Amino acid sequence: MTSAADTASPPAPPSAEAALAALRGEIDRLDDQLHDLVMRRAEVVASLAASRVKGGASPLRPGREAMILRRLLRRHHGDLPPGAMVRLWREILASSSAMQGGFGVAVYTRDSNQPRLAREHFGSLTPVRSMPTAARALAAVGSGEAQVAVLPLPEEGEPLDQAWWLGLDAPRLQVMARLPFWAPNAENLPEAFAVAPGAPDPSGADRSLLRLEAAADRGRTQLLGALAAAGLTPRTLLTRREGGVVRALAEVDGVVAEGDPRLAALPFDRALPLGFYAVPERGDQG
What is the structure's pLDDT at 286? Predict the structure, then answer.
């Protein structure tokens, strides 16, 4: 004997409208959870800012931020592009820095990419002021008008007024970041350095900049050999010869700060660290 249950029709599948409403409801629940976590993160940041441990330290922690983003990039998967994830966290990190003491950015606008790089790195709500020269941008930081200067990467043979590294007032002002921190590839990529008061914090994978001065009779090969002999093999080396003196900008792996014994081993008239930065992440690596 056949029961009514055996002859009952299977339940009708949900309509397209019902399925869409269910998905939207799930998104709403996820948005609430995300919002709760963001608010909780802000509470923790506020506690950190008020703690005695922070003291009078700068709210800018580029090394710590790099460590956070590297960790998230390693665990990231799925359909959301890594660049979108980085942009989300850059806004969160910028807001956290602003909570601990608002800051502004002075940008030397040698080209149109510099303001964009500054806003993408330091947050869309961070005040960004355009400056006509690198010296004006650095002066704004030195006077406290801004807390960060964004400057173009140095180039071989650039005009003297654009070679900002020659007059950087280190260690009072130091390079603390290279922008952008993440990009899909390294080809034809506009980049910039960020300069701020005080020393940057290490990220675990860093590169340092050194300003060198020596007698003008030293050639490029001699400079490279002396750096390598001291354990400071440069990735790049820019040189300028003026008034019987050769000045060079060397980029080397690792953190090199004042007091590093390798600096004392260099046979130059002066070797001054200009700061260091977290090695950027590029999407075409590995």
Answer: 45
